[in-house]
Amino acid sequence: MPGQPSARGRRTTERKGDLRERAILDTCETLLADKGYDAMTVGDVAQGAGITRGALYFYFGSKQEVVTALVARTVEHLWERSRVTAQTDEPRQAIAAAMRRTVELWNEHGLVMRTAIDLSLTVPEIGELWNHTADLFITAIAAVLERAGIQAGTQPEQASAMARALCWMIERTFYHASQESREALQDASATCEHIWLTSAGLIT
Known about the structure:
Blueprint: H1 7-34, H2 42-49, H3 53-59, H4 63-86, H5 91-119, H6 124-147, H7 159-177, H8 182-199
């Protein structure tokens, strides 16, 4: 209709914006590796993304907002990749698949996830994102434990409490291993998988 932007025009604008935002976040992830959070600046991010500092402020108000958005994108990938595997009916397969996905994601985005953990206590938005993601994983781990025969509930020997401990153990173990090598991540995965299987009563 006259006077209204076409659907095609709107899609083009959104696509351009999405590409620019992706470039900003990709640059941020590269700079985290090259300089670290404290040393990188908004100007560095803008230059790496091929835009002006003023254009970057159209998308994000500060370096902290850029990193928060990067963490949000990463945890979305983390959950989307892991969600289906956690729903596998056979507990052993679900546990093995979940640990494989965890290794893949820490290999790909370990730096972002370590940054999220480091900033989670001082940046409320990042802390909320990280804790919400952990809660999703705790629920998924508890479901696997219940399918393996562990009683549902929040008592120390029940599935929810055990899942919480397993989730935070896996996070901390991978945090340290990811700073060493890919081989260390594989070893960490094998250890965490063994503990999870033992907790589920699937091995003795």
